[in-house]
Amino acid sequence: MTELRRKFDVKLVVVLKAARMSSSSYHDARHRKYQADSSTLVDEIRSIRLNNPDYGYRTVTLALKNKGIQANHKAVLRIMRENNLLCQAFNRRTKKYNSYKGNVGKIAHNRLRRRFKTDRSFQKVVTDVTEVRWGEQTVNERAYFTAYIDLYNGEIIEWAVDRKPTVDFVTRPLKRLLAKRPDLPYRMTIHSDQGFQYQNHRYVNILQRAHVFQSMSRKATCLDNAVAESIFHILKVGTVHNHRYKNYKELESGITNYIDYYNHRRIKAKLAGMSPVKYREHTSQLVA
């Protein structure tokens, strides 16, 4: 600004108007002491991104805070942009698997009604089925993934991978979930879409015998099960979207490893910068 004023011999107000800059910003910039980014901070951000490919700049900022490093999220964003460290993992879009086959069984009422928050574990659980592929991504190289997710902390409590999306495929992890459910003074609600597996009498009977409320999304309304959709997308980003698995065994192993990482090490802003398991353990200690 000073050089422009000298070159063209004009008043400051003219230069500021041409640059669309306020006088306060100009004087602040003149007196501010700018410092180069610490190499240690850049190295820490690079290390976090290397170990967590699906972290955006806000989650990186949380990870830095957990290490005792205070950094503004805007500064972190700028450093990541300048060093080509921005997360690109979520850019890919794929076709969603649809298990709806019409009214082939019981359609349950939507008890959840998009009320995804709860302060009690095992009170609200959501589930769904999605498709995952390996190799050349052909129809002969596809498998199916299902999970039961606790809305209390977003933890994947139980899950399964199989080559066929049968009723047994979703009831096996359901039985494991019910077996590990603690004795609680309230009933559990399990929410799903209207997939044929969840309408089947075997699935319905298991819930009824366990005194579990069944809840279903409205037809063709994926936002009614938005949390499951979101977590499935995160899982795909961490596995099949950015890794090429040679066979079914590699795919199964990759999903197993990622779920362990997601539950125990992947931090979230809404969990106070903790992973799902860490948050559950932390809150349990507070209650005790």
From TrEMBL:
Biological function: Involved in the transposition of the insertion sequence.
InterPro entries named in the record: HTH-like_dom, Integrase_cat-core, RNaseH-like_sf, RNaseH_sf, Transpos_IS3, Transposase_IS3/IS150/IS904
UniProt source species: Levilactobacillus spicheri
One Gene Ontology biological process: DNA integration
Domain Integrase catalytic: 117-284
Protein name: Transposase
Domain of life: Bacteria
Pfam families reported in the protein's UniProt record: HTH_21, rve, rve_2
GO molecular function, one term: nucleic acid binding
